[in-house]
Design brief:
heterodimer, A: 330 residues, alpha+beta, Fusion Protein Consisting Of Minor Coat Protein, Glycine Rich Linker, Tola, And A His Tag, Chain: A, Domain 2, 2 domains, 4-stranded antiparallel β-sheet, two-stranded antiparallel ribbon, 12 helices, 55% helix, elongated, B: 185 residues, mainly alpha, Rna Polymerase Sigma Factor, Chain: A, Arc Repressor Mutant, subunit A, 0% strand
């Protein structure tokens, strides 16, 4: 169970996208499934929904620093020195900004944040407040036009400083491959689940159709299909393997090649999606989850070289459709 | 190195760096949970540091089978104690009681999470026995992959209700399956 630093960033950006409602329906469901079986992450996600990702990253870095100081007291002095010089710079910058902006009360609170959060690093906070007072007293004399440029410069300074301290995540667009850490976590879940059922499963490999659009749900749960269908009108048809789901699974089983030098991994699951165009052609193959490139390439090869697909039918007409498959390496 | 190995190494050596390494792995979760209950960044950050101190003294005294779940419980308990000692405890406490779920054993994979292609007849049968709302929620969430919000709109209930239906439904299914298993043996 590896939850590295990267993994945290991945988790946080996932939480942010979840809270903002930026996930696709499929993604949201699988995120919620993970939360339901992991109460720790579930509760943490509730907590993070109250603050922004930027704040979260900033707080966590601050905490990480404090924990590291706690466990390695020797390095404390060095930390203080660096922190003190950064703090001095930041305090100076924010004090100037404060004064310049002192008329707009609303902004004050915002600008104060950098100065406050630095306090914890400061060996003697008393001196800062002294500086603040002094500057506040002298500066209001200055008139605004003269300091206009300076104000912008200082603002920039504060921002650069901030972005140095808080490493913000760059969010990948929805269609881009998922970040590595997410994969690791998801793969872990999958392999955990897979390990437990491996005794009963004699299969060497399996491909499970886990999505298309909502129309393909009949693939996942045969026993309840009738019930759910009765509750809603049945959509035309999702795209499906031309020779049937069973044959397609059989094809995957018989043709899957485990990448060399991965013997140590018990189970590996690649979640892959692609479009079946109205012509029946396969397009836009996209890896959603993978334990590694070798596995992704093999999954892509299987789909490219595999049996053909029938296009989906919507409103009586052939239409493009997205299919998601789980390819399991055993 | 595995969590539990780090735990036993710390218990024997009291090397804080080992504990720090272990704690940093889950600190983001600890902080999130503290945020949830304490609802304040400063308080939550203090709590993260205090919980670390608590671990230093508690870990050597305890037998910990699963560090991650154990840490979750410790975190929640700490937050509960904090809330108790604070003003306006009643309101926060009541909320805490309402939102506290059961910590599932991590090694247990619920049949619903076991993405097998053919769903057990047993499971299907147990699902049919669930009460109406739980059944509808479970089916939509696990078989149609709909998310909380959609299900809530669909059934005209609150999102929180959807989540509790799923949690309770899962628990009832587990009980139902275990009972049936016992009968078969």
């Amino acid at each position: 169970m590896k939850e590295t630093n990267n993994n945290k960033k991945g988790y946080l950006s996932e939480v942010e996208r979840y809270v903002r409602g930026e996930m696709s329906q499929r993604e949201e469901n699988s995120f919620q499934r993970r939360l339901l079986r992991d109460p720790f992450s579930d509760e943490a996600t509730d907590g993070y929904s109250g603050i922004s990702q930027k704040e979260a990253v900033k707080d966590l870095e601050h905490l990480e620093k404090k924990i590291k100081e706690r466990v390695r007291p020797k390095q404390r002095i060095l930390y203080y020195r660096i922190a003190a010089s950064i703090a001095a710079l930041l305090v100076l910058a924010s004090v100037t900004v404060l004064v310049l902006r002192s008329r707009s009360q609303a902004r004050l609170a915002d600008l104060f944040i950098p100065a406050q959060s630095i306090e914890a690093f400061q060996p003697s906070p008393g001196t800062d407040s002294a500086i603040t007072d002094e500057t506040v007293l002298t500066n209001p004399e200055q008139n605004v036009p003269e300091t206009g440029n300076q104000q912008i410069a200082v603002n920039e300074l504060v921002q650069t400083q901030e972005s140095d301290v808080t490493v913000t995540d760059v969010q990948s667009p929805e269609s881009a491959p998922v970040t590595e850490d997410r994969e690791a976590e998801a793969a872990l879940d999958d392999s955990g689940a897979a390990a437990l059922r491996s005794d009963s499963a004699v299969k060497m490999a399996e491909a499970v159709l886990i999505s298309g659009n909502s129309t393909s749900r009949n693939m996942t749960a045969a026993p309840v299909r009738n019930e759910t269908d009765a509750a809603e009108p049945l959509p035309d048809a999702p795209s499906q393997p031309a020779e049937g789901q069973e044959n397609y699974t059989k094809y995957i089983k018989e043709n899957i090649r485990r990448p060399a030098a991965t013997e140590s991994m018990d189970n590996a699951v690649v979640v892959i999606s692609f479009q079946v165009l109205s012509t029946g052609a396969i397009d836009s193959i996209n890896i959603i989850n993978t334990p590694g490139d070798e596995f992704s390439n093999e999954a892509i090869r299987l789909i490219k070289e595999g049996p053909s697909w029938l296009p989906a039918v919507k409103n009586g007409q052939k239409a493009d459709d997205t299919v998601t498959l789980r390819v399991v390496f055993k | 190195m595995k969590d539990e190995e780090l735990v036993s190494e710390f218990s024997s050596s009291h090397d804080l760096e080992i504990l720090g390494e272990l704690y940093l792995k889950y600190m983001h979760l600890v902080y999130g949970v503290c945020l949830k209950y304490l609802k304040n960044r400063e308080e939550a950050m203090d709590a993260v540091m205090q919980i670390f101190e608590k671990l230093i003294s508690d870990i050597p005294k305890q037998r910990i089978e699963n560090f991650r779940s154990w840490l979750h419980v410790v975190t929640k308990n700490y937050c509960l104690m904090q809330l108790r000692s604070m003003k306006g405890e009643d309101e926060k406490l009541r909320e805490w009681m309402l939102t506290t779920g059961i910590v599932e054993n991590e090694h247990y994979v619920h049949p619903l999470d076991n993405e097998q292609q053919e769903i057990d007849n047993l499971l299907a049968d147990c699902i049919e026995r669930l009460n109406g709302e739980q059944k509808e929620c479970i089916k939509r969430f696990y078989y149609e992959s709909r998310c909380y919000k959609e299900i809530a709109e669909d059934l005209g209930i609150d999102e929180k209700k959807v989540k509790s239906n799923l949690q309770n439904g899962k628990r009832n299914l587990k009980i139902c399956i275990e009972e049936k298993d016992e009968r078969d043996e």
